[in-house]
Amino acid sequence: MSAIDVQEAITRAHREEWARVVAALTKRFGDLDVAEEAAAEAFATAVARWPADGVPPNPGGWLTTTATHKAIDRLRRENKRHDKQKEALLVHDDDPPEPAGPIDDERLRLIFTCCHPALAPRTRVALTLRMVGGLTVPEIARAFLVRETTMGQRITRAKAKIKAARIPYRVPSAEDLPTRLSGVLAVLFLVFNEGYLATGPDTDPVRPALTAEAIRLTRLIRTLLPDDGEVAGLLALMLLTEARRPARVSSTGELVTLSEQDRGSWDASLIAEGHRLVRERLASGAAPGRYQILAAINAVHTSARDARDTDWSQVVALYDQLVRLDPSPVIALNRAIAVAELDGPEVALATIDRLNDELAEYHAYHATRADLLRRLGRTQDSRAAYDKAITLSGNTAETAYLTRRRNQLN
Predict the structure, then answer these.
(1) Long-range contacts for 33-39 (Cβ within 8 Å, ≥24 apart)?
(2) Within a 10 A sphere around the Cβ of 243, how many other Cβ atoms?
(3) How wide is the angle at C-alpha 191 spanned by C-alphas 364 and 360, nearest 5°?
(4) What pLDDT, on a 0 to 100 scale, did the predictor assign at position 380?
(5) Which residue intervals define the domain RNA polymerase sigma-70 region in the entry (predicted)?
(6) Fewest Cβ atoms nearer than 10 Å: which of 17, 201, 243, 359?
């Protein structure tokens, strides 16, 4: 096996086995810190040994066994702790780790632990990316535009809080599962959105690594919970959105709106998979949740060969459903954008202006308002709205687009 083949095997093992290894060690030792450090050491050992020894027949088993021994060595070095539970665990030094099947709920337990509501939302995102996704602290820090030391401290405090608060390492009970699962999905959606339209001015406008990681983790959740409609809906939403990414930013670094995108460059395979998931949920006859409706809206958009062929009446009808589930001002704003295509900009503007108090600091509100005012010929008001949107926007591609549109008013 060549050096390139070995490197690819290590990369694949990290992608596929990191969460399994961390989950297995967390179950055995009850300590996220021990699990994380031992898993990292095991992969470092693989990097050193596999080029010479060859890739083992069962990479996941090799990594779990190596990580278990690393964890035991660490606990032994910590001077025969008074913690009798850890001492008892060391007695089983030579026991082989439990085999990890294709679907093992230890990873699910790990995800629910990282996304526990006792942790702050930003912390849940960071901890999930580290413990489940296997991203390094520098990678997570770069993704969310904070210092590496700050992100490291945030993750360390989160693990300490889990230990101090005795947050259980388990899947929630049946009655708690819907609420807790919604928190997990919200974390994954946040990760995806940050990748699809980065909020910081000092980073790439689109972060494919983050969108890919969010999709991978959502696929994992779907593997573990194949019958949950909202998991399927979120995955479909991500796939249909990610399919448009190649047309999202122009060669000059400017955002390209949906109506102006080259639909021939969209990823047809992702669209087909997303449409299939949407159809499956419709065929189930179950009442759709928020992510399923959002996925259905994106299915309508990606079904149109040309922006002019979009079935806006269907989009508005879907938003009407969504508003009943989620009457947030952002949903009302997005519905108004669809209404503008169906009933005209004046009707939509009347709706949007009522949202000012709640969305005054939201750049998309001012960008939408600027476009509607432009279409109505109210140039001065449109320019002021573009100025406000540019001030609030942090995405470089979006800022470039808004600046061009404002300058065209001249």
Answers:
(1) 33/156, 33/159, 33/163, 34/71, 34/74, 34/75, 35/67, 35/71, 35/131, 36/130, 36/131, 36/159, 37/70, 37/71, 37/74, 38/67, 38/68, 38/70, 38/71, 38/74, 39/63, 39/67
(2) 21
(3) 20
(4) 97
(5) 20-80
(6) 201
Higher-confidence position of 185 and 200: 185
Q: What share of the chain is helix, strand, coil (3-state, %, to 5)?
A: 70, 0, 25
Which string of DSSP letters, residue by residue, matches 53-107? H---SSHHHHHHHHHHHHHHHHHHHTTS-S-HHHHHHHTTTTSPPPP--SS-HHH
On whether the CB atoms of residues 307 and 259 are closer than 8 A, the answer is yes
Contact 359, 367 (CB under 8 A): no
- Pair of tokens at residue 259: 């109506």
Q: Can you tell me the distance from the alpha carbon of 143 to that of 194, in angstroms, rounded to the nearest whole number?
A: 8
Residue whose token pair is 């032994």: 76
Helices and strands in the chain: count of H runs, count of E runs: 20, 0
Contacts of 244 (CB under 8 A, 6+ apart): 258, 261, 266, 267, 302
Specify the 3-state DSSP secondary structure of 249: strand
223 pLDDT tier (thresholds 50, 70, 90): confident
Residue 62 corresponds to which amino acid?
A: W
Whole-model pTM over 0.85: no
Burial 178-190 (b: 16+ CB within 10 A, else e): eebbebbbbbbbb
What letter does residue 174 receive in the DSSP assignment?
T
> Exposed (0-12), middle (13-18) or buried (19+): which is 85, by Cβ within 10 Å?
exposed
Residue with tokens 């009347």: 350
Q: Which tokens is 345 given?
A: 């900009």
Which residue, among 36, 98, 97, 27, has the nearest Cα to 69 in the 3D structure?
97
Q: What does the alpha-carbon distance between residue 53 and residue 351 come to, in Å, rounded to a whole number?
A: 67
Query: What's the pLDDT tens digit per position in 353-405?
Result: 999 999 998 999 999 999 999 999 999 999 999 999 999 887 888 999 999 99
Helix (H) or strand (E) holding 396: helix 396-408
Q: Any residues with CB less than 8 A from the CB of 320 and at least 6 apart, and which? A: 335
